[in-house]
Amino acid sequence: PEYISVTNLASLLKVRVEDFVRKLEQLGFEEVQNDHILNAEHAGLVAQEYNFEPIVQADGTDGDLYPAPALSPEDYAELPQRPPVVTIMGHVDHGKTTILDYMRSTSVAAGEFGGITQHIGAFSVPLASGKKITFLDTPGHAAFETMRARGANVTDIVVLVVAADDSVMPQTVEAIKHAQSAQVPIIVAINKIDKPQADPERVKQDLARQGIEVEDFGGEVQTVNVSGKTGQGIPDLEEAITTLSEILDHRADPLSRVEGWVLEGTTKKSGKVATVLVRTGTLRQGDILVAGNTWTRVRSLHNEAGLVVKEVGPGMPVEVDGWREQPIAGDEALQAEDEQQAAQVTELRTEKIEREQMAKDMEAINEHRRLES
Ligand code: GDP
Ligand code: MG
């Protein structure tokens, strides 16, 4: 409904009308009567005061789950740190896969279990310091682009890989443009430093020509000499990432309702699964997630080593099973209260998509008719 009376909303929220009226007055509503009518927006805001997540149905068509509003700077500063989410970019053959594989193979999860990892589109590297870094390993950066198109940056930091024997190439320039337009800070990994032809100074000069102000030349962008082949410099790269993450002050609330991104969706023998990167909250078995027009009651959570994990906090990727339909990369995953709410939201979203498709079809038919006549 578009409007609701004070009495009805109080009964929905299971609070006494008198207490509810007092609350409304505290919130700034004036001369509240029991038959006072609230619009959907106000009712939603009041419901949130009682820790309800309202399904806003302002016009009767937009039943949906929404991400929590942004926190105030004071509240944000109280939250625990979370791992940074890093995307590796660079020219083909400059060593992106080699560097990722090196870091993956040295991660505890992979090491303890024979190094057999499965591709889930992201993985977490635990460091000696106890901190963690999450690397996205999504082909074609498809999810990255979809999410960016929606105005959200899933990536906190871009590691730009430049081969020391080849320097800046067309896809290096493209990656710089991507990172800059998304306003994601860059760390440069000058790779293949083990090669005799390696010339890191030339790389720095070529980067400066592309507007990348590297530290050595008085700028802010860190460069790290590495070899994905020998592992030389990789711990320095990891340290550069965690240091930058501390400066950027990446934090998240592990106790909030779960919000995340779908990085990949696939169908396996076990059914429809999706890699979800948790943005805030802690995801557990039995939780209910909605993504696009599908939902799941989480049967089990698996990490990149294929192992069952009990719970996953902010900044961490995990494979989630039990989806009704296959989720789509780039979709937002939001926790619902219960199966009923999840089913309702997905139904409304599906109807909305169908309505929009029908409107498009009608337009095409009308256009066709106009051209015919
Ligand atoms: P990508 O296209 O950026 O993912 O590049 P790859 O990781 O596939 O690497 C391309 C080639 O460079 C492969 O033959 C790698 O073995 C080689 N390579 C990658 N990193 C290094 C390195 O640090 N040193 C040397 N010598 N070769 C490397
Ligand atoms: Mg590759």
TrEMBL record:
Regions crossing the membrane: none
Subcellular localization(s) per the UniProt record: Mitochondrion
Signal sequence, renumbered to the chain: none
Domain called Tr-type G: residue spans: 81-249
Family: Belongs to the TRAFAC class translation factor GTPase superfamily. Classic translation factor GTPase family. IF-2 subfamily.
Function statement: One of the essential components for the initiation of protein synthesis. Protects formylmethionyl-tRNA from spontaneous hydrolysis and promotes its binding to the 30S ribosomal subunits. Also involved in the hydrolysis of GTP during the formation of the 70S ribosomal complex.
Protein name as catalogued: Translation initiation factor IF-2, mitochondrial
